[in-house]
Amino acid sequence: MSMHTVSLNKAYGGTQGVYRHASHETRTDMTFSVYVPPHAAGTRLPVVWYLSGLTCTHANVTEKGEFRSACAEFSLIFVAPDTSPRGEGVPGDPANAYDFGLGAGFYVDATQEPFARNYRMWSYVTEELPKLVAENFPVDASRQSILGHSMGGHGALTIALRHPDRYRSASAFAPIVAPSQVPWGIKALGGYLGDARQAWRKHDAVALIEDGARLSELLVDYGDADQFLTEQLRPELLQGACEKAKIPLTLRRQSGYDHSYYFISTFMADHLRWHAERLKG
Ligand SMILES: N[C@@H](CCC(=O)N[C@@H](CS)C(=O)NCC(=O)O)C(=O)O
């Protein structure tokens, strides 16, 4: 699998890169960013996957996430994929909707037309991109963690719940925890997966936990001034599911914070420290 370098910039002694490759999953070119911290030649480093929210590309967190200082301090590689396929012929014009189509892939493999051909973000993020990253960067694949924001928090939680042996830890900022029960999720899962709600359950963190999926622990932050909190995010549903399933959840309500990267960047280093502790050794 080949990729080409779009940009490389030295930062905190390491390298922030942006790369593009032809994806066989999405049948489009895909762009992603990777920060590699300073390290001794020949060493393999733990990797943290960051999944972004609605309307985002790799660039939002890369430019506004303020993760590099902590990644350099804790020796973490940080990978940020795009949130959907893009390009000529890809359906889902964002002029029609910001919450479905381009920039809103929801980390599922679509089964419905006309989306099934390109919208394969589940397989892209869990299979294709990890292989490409392992081939091209000094990652230790036995030490991986995943985190995300909003729609990307949904992606991080569902991916971690379905791959408990692959990721040592999972966390989220303001995640959509029960897409089957909120407007963003009902629109996206219905549009990509169809009306048969049974197929939605493996893309719904709360439903996965109800159906028996387990994680050793979870860290979730949200802001109490988040404009999406009560209608779309509903952290209390995750809290209830985790309590029932006895999954230790650290759920922090951050006073005055909204849904933006001002919130995410404030708590980014904290999450990365938490992951780094679990990625040791
Ligand atoms: N304000 C956005 C709503 C979507 C939104 O808040 N997106 C979040 C993720 S769910 C985000 O990170 N946006 C991009 C950014 O802040 O850079 C819009 O109406 O387009």
From TrEMBL:
Query: Looking at its record, which EC class is this enzyme?
Result: hydrolase
Record key words, sorted: Hydrolase, Serine esterase
The active site is formed by 150, 226, 259
Keyword Hydrolase carried by entry: yes
The reaction(s) annotated as catalysed by this protein in its Swiss-Prot or TrEMBL entry are:
S-formylglutathione + H2O = formate + glutathione + H(+)
Any one Gene Ontology molecular-function term assigned to this protein's record? carboxylic ester hydrolase activity
Example GO CC term: the record gives: cytosol
An annotated GO BP: formaldehyde catabolic process
EC nos: 3.1.2.12
Q: Would the keyword Hydrolase be found if you checked this record's keyword annotation?
A: yes
The entry sums up its family as follows:
Belongs to the esterase D family.
Q: According to its UniProt entry, what is the function of this protein?
A: Serine hydrolase involved in the detoxification of formaldehyde.
The name this protein carries in UniProt is S-formylglutathione hydrolase
- Provenance organism: Bradyrhizobium icense
